[in-house]
Amino acid sequence: MRIIAPSFTILDELDRQSLPVRIEYCGRICYKSEHRIDSDSAIPFVRKMAFNGHNSVLEMGVTTLVATCDPRLIGIFFSHQPKFLHIDWKRVDQLLITGSIRAFLEVYRAASIPDHISRACAWFLSRRHPYFFETTAPLNDANGVTVEKMELDEVEQLAPPICAKHRFLAVKFIVNRAVTHELVRHRPCSFLQESQRYCRYSADKFGNEVTFIKPVFFEAESEEFSLWKQSMAAMEAQYLRLLQTSSPQAARTVLPNSCKTEIIVYTNLLEWKHILSLRTSPAAEPSMREVMIPLAQELGRRYPAVFC
């Protein structure tokens, strides 16, 4: 049995990598297969995700595009109400459009839509990243729309309200499963989490043991902490015993909320501001506050115009 403290990592450097590299890093957290990442593994990984329809993984790649066109096409675009895209005016004939690969892939598959702007964005990405779109019939270029990619540093230079909406940020948390049960209630976010269904903690890569998060509620030498440790040790023994005759998805039924898990939360700075306002308040769950208060302080340092 191993006991560790909760932690978080802001993956801002990851956001500056290519879309396939970002998606592979996040996707492999589910099965804890990060050891398989190498210089050539990203594109085969994302190609497999797209082929198998693992769309939640494709939400971990977000890009910002600039679409220039006749203003009359913009009216059609808004009347179509494209899903899961973040949109702002850049000028009268130009839109700033941010969305995940999943969102643009779904537009690409809806070939009958009359919206030229969405189609042009999807077509543009299919040319730059064909491995995401190989399982779908080719989409013709939409006439009259010019699309270009906006780089991350350009997004960060936008005025705070626009930057907060279009700048997405991934944070990896190492916390207990009770905290992740609360995190996934934030609907505008994308999540990928370590899977107890597939991870076999008796394997060598997990140290042949179950890892637990130290509870914030108990002092290290207290009677309550001692009782908690005894309970975790008993749960681990039952889990390892079940693995001898059962699958991980069956054995996990005895694992408690105190189990360590890793989760990546990916959303824009506007939603992060909302999450932190809720999860750092005195009314928030203490284990949540334990990671969210220092996260709020760090994001305030990095993005003072948004969080301060």
Alpha carbon gyration radius: 22 Å
Portion in beta strands:
15-25%
Shape descriptor reads globular
Query: Could you give the order of the helices and strands?
Result: EEHHHEHEEHHEHHEHEEHHEHHH
Broad structural category:
alpha+beta
The low-confidence parts are none
Description:
With 308 residues, the chain is α+β, with helices and mostly antiparallel strands. 43% of the residues lie in helices and 19% in strands. It contains 14 helices and 10 strands. The chain has helices spanning 19-27, 42-51, 55-58, 71-80, 101-109, 116-128, 152-156, 160-166, 177-183, 223-243, 248-251, 269-279, 286-302, 304-307; strands at 2-4, 7-10, 62-69, 86-91, 94-100, 145-150, 168-176, 190-193, 211-213, 260-268. The strands form 3 sheets. It has a 4-stranded antiparallel sheet with strand order 2-7-10-8.
Note the topology.
Layout: E1 2-4, E2 7-10, H1 19-27, H2 42-51, H3 55-58, E3 62-69, H4 71-80, E4 86-91, E5 94-100, H5 101-109, H6 116-128, E6 145-150, H7 152-156, H8 160-166, E7 168-176, H9 177-183, E8 190-193, E9 211-213, H10 223-243, H11 248-251, E10 260-268, H12 269-279, H13 286-302, H14 304-307
Parallel strand pairs: 1-9
Antiparallel strand pairs: 2-7, 3-5, 3-6, 4-5, 7-10, 8-10
